[in-house]
Write a structure and sequence with these properties.
Keywords: Membrane, Transmembrane, Transmembrane helix. By secondary structure, the chain is mostly helical. It has 5 helices and no strands. It has one domain.
Length: 149
């Protein structure tokens, strides 16, 4: 059992690291320049549309990702056997990070393609929300109500 717990913790930590590598790569790719940086900077309609989509994605997906995991924890994960609970915990942790990755991706693309600060602010909001998802063995044990042997 302890080995399975450590494996799930390792998997969730790896997903969290990959989540944080996404903005690092986006910033590195955007700062090195290219033809796509500022491609739509002069197009007011496209910039407005991209900013609106990014703001809506952030406003919807940040609270949904945090609350959905909490809801799934109480409604689906707590009612199954421990091996299934560990598998579902890893799955829904990944779903939560994937939901948070969408406004990060949209935000940085809006920032670099439209040269709009609204995009980077939305991306930073999603990145800050991800700090509420820090994985760890103590957190997993607390959320799944597993006592240390």
């Amino acid at each position: 059992m302890e080995e399975k717990i450590k494996r799930v913790v390792s998997r969730t930590k790896m997903m969290f690291v990959y989540f944080w590598l996404l903005p690092v790569f986006l910033v590195a790719f955007g700062e090195t320049g290219g033809e796509w940086v500022g491609a739509y900077a002069g197009d007011v309609r496209t910039a407005y549309f991209a900013e609106t989509v990014t703001i809506l994605l952030t406003a919807v997906l940040v609270p949904v990702s945090l609350k959905l995991f909490s809801w799934m924890l109480t409604k689906k994960i707590d009612v199954v056997a421990i091996t299934d609970a560990l598998r579902l915990y890893a799955l829904w942790s990944g779903v939560r990070l994937a939901l948070l990755a969408m406004p990060v991706l949209a935000g940085f693309l809006t920032y670099y393609m439209m040269l709009s600060n609204k995009g980077v602010l939305c991306a930073l909001i999603a990145l800050t929300a991800s700090l509420f998802c820090l994985p760890g063995e103590n957190r997993l044990r607390k959320e799944l109500h597993i006592e240390k042997e």
